[in-house]
Amino acid sequence: MRKKEKVQLVFHEGLPEICYSTLPYSGKLVILKRGIRAFSMCYDQSSSAAKNRRAAIAENKRLGISKAQVAAMIYGARFGFDNPEADPKNYDKRGNLLPIQPEPERGSPEIRER
Description:
The chain has helices spanning 49-63, 67-79, and strands spanning 18-22, 29-33, 39-41. It is α+β, with helices and mostly antiparallel strands. The protein is globular, with a radius of gyration of 17 Å. It starts with 17 loop residues before the first strand and ends in a 35-residue tail after the last helix.
């Protein structure tokens, strides 16, 4: 009989458990959950995209979630939480992605400019 291995997922520091956003193409209000590559639809939402956007902003503010954290959660939900773009520290306070420096490959010498 095989032993079951426990897998512990490691997330970037500063990601909230959940946050709120809207889908860009429909304006539907969604919940994003840390570590889940999907969007969950909110049942309590308006038919107005603008009202849904305001609701998402208000809920995130109530929860103390920054725009950088929301942007990182959106990226993680779409492309995976193991990417540098799913790290809130790679965004400015407005939620805009900052230039990310590629990490040197293991075993390769670092190149330094003089």
